[in-house]
Amino acid sequence: MRELLERYPALTECREDIEKAAELLIETYNEGGKVLCCGNGGSASDSEHIVGELMKGFMLSRKVTDENIPEDLRDKLQGALPAISLPSQTSVLSAFVNDCDPEMIYAQLVYGYAQGNDLLIALSTSGNSKNVVAAARVAKAVGAKVIAMTGAKESKLSEIADVCIKAPETETYKVQECHLPIYHYLCANTEAKFFK
User: What is the full DSSP assignment across 30-51?
Assistant: First the structure.
């Protein structure tokens, strides 16, 4: 955390929420849960990025020790923290948008995937993206936890989420620039907990 705040001092005002989010991520994996991520546009790309850091080695080598995996395969794998990027589910997303309510695209996936020990990371620079808010509402309804990453203003997501990290900016690209180092910290911190 110290290095994050030294490099990005503007994030100091988010420190408490970043720490709470870090605890929630570790709790999720300790309880055998998985992480789901969603957002739109640049935040959809951030969802993919977060999953990429969780599902394979990020800062550390993640040696696989599971002896059920044949040794020749085990040596070529890396330890994974289970995570799914909802924007990457293009077939079901496009089918759902075509057949049903576009505002419910992520909510449908959360309903299908999420269980009570899971965590949704909901990214929205405004905090009010209708499809992301609906996903967060469904996550809470099925007993999953929600980390929201938004801009500085109060929002629908900040009301719903267990933890809302409000980047100290309001312009979309500036909010997204703040989100990147925050989720890099969260992923590196979680990896260190399970693979150091």
Answer: HTT--EEEE-STHHHHHHHHHH
